[in-house]
Design brief:
Pfam families: BtpA
Shape: globular
Protein name: BtpA/SgcQ family protein
CATH superfamily: FMN-linked oxidoreductases
Strand order of the largest sheet: 1-2-3-4-7-9-10-11
Oligomer: single chain
Number of domains: 1
CATH topology: TIM Barrel
Largest sheet: 8 strands, parallel, barrel
Organism: Paenibacillus solisilvae
Family: Belongs to the BtpA family.
CATH class: Alpha Beta
Structural class: alpha/beta
CATH architecture: Alpha-Beta Barrel
Helix content: 25-40%
Length: 273
């Protein structure tokens, strides 16, 4: 049994993305509609995801494009307000992700009571956002300084729009990340949000670190969910749940229900054995 059962309530868990619209300070923030509109749309998506039957929700500033690796205070403040306003509506376990800043993600988790955080905690990358360095030792010390020691850490080891500066195999990255950092889970992604994660890469990672939770981070769809969940311990799902399966759209409850019905059917034999 993994921590997913204790924290989220099931194995083969589906963590649904609740994407926030651009926030104050972001280039595409709608100043006319303001924060009230951002909150309204976040609530609409959250309720659709929950009614559709997802196991957990991950709040992120997905539309804060282009992303920062040293996020500004106004972004974290805005996200904390949104989650605070939604608190009475949140009925499932939730996590947070302040893209792409591990410390700020932990700050937000501590402030809101989030159960888990997904981030780029370790490694050095060449990315669309420039040279991307991390300091995992300092980040984990920061986690404990702010009283967030119980927050589960999901390490994205194949970040979107970035690649390791060193020429390393995915097996090497997975093995050393687990040995050195003891992550609660590893996330494996495709190139961008919504891009299918290669099943062969997922198999390599899971076979290399069989005792660590491994999640498919992008591109899990109705037609491939059984294959991906047969390899992994669960998935983070965003674009699939949107109208027409498009990243920029809002959540379509019918797509969520169809997906989760198939997931629950897939899980039944696992539960009864």
């Amino acid at each position: 049994m993994t921590w997913l059962k204790d924290i989220i309530g099931t194995e083969k868990a589906i963590i649904a993305m609740c994407h926030f619209l651009p926030l104050p300070g972001d280039p595409y923030y709608d100043k006319e509609k303001g924060m009230e509109y951002v909150i309204e749309m976040a609530r609409k998506d959250l309720l659709a995801l929950q009614e559709g039957g997802v196991d957990a929700v991950l709040f992120s500033n997905e539309f804060s494009l282009p992303y920062l690796t040293d996020v500004k205070t106004e972004t974290v403040a805005a996200m904390a307000r949104i989650i605070g306003e939604l608190m009475s509506d949140i009925k499932v376990p939730f996590g947070v992700n302040v893209l792409w800043d591990a410390k700020k993600s932990l700050d937000l988790a501590a402030a809101t009571g989030a159960k888990f955080v997904r981030e780029i905690f370790s490694g050095v990358y060449a990315s669309d956002f420039g040279l991307w360095n991390t300091n995992v030792g300092e980040t984990i010390r920061h986690q404990h300084r702010i009283g967030a020691g119980n927050v589960k850490l999901i390490y994205n080891i194949v970040p979107e729009a970035a690649s390791y500066l060193a020429d390393r195999s995915i097996e090497s990255i997975a093995k050393s990340t687990v040995f050195n950092n003891r992550p609660d889970a590893l996330c494996v992604s495709g190139l961008t949000a919504g891009s299918i994660t290669d099943s062969q890469i997922l198999k390599l990672v899971k076979n290399t670190v069989p005792d660590t939770v491994v999640l498919a981070n992008t591109g899990v769809r109705l037609e491939n969910l059984e294959e991906q969940l047969s390899i992994t311990d669960g998935a983070v799902v965003g674009t699939t749940f949107k109208y027409e399966g498009k990243f920029e759209n809002h959540v379509d409850i019918n797509r969520v229900k169809a997906f989760m019905d198939k997931v629950k059917s897939f899980r039944k034999p696992l539960i009864t054995v």
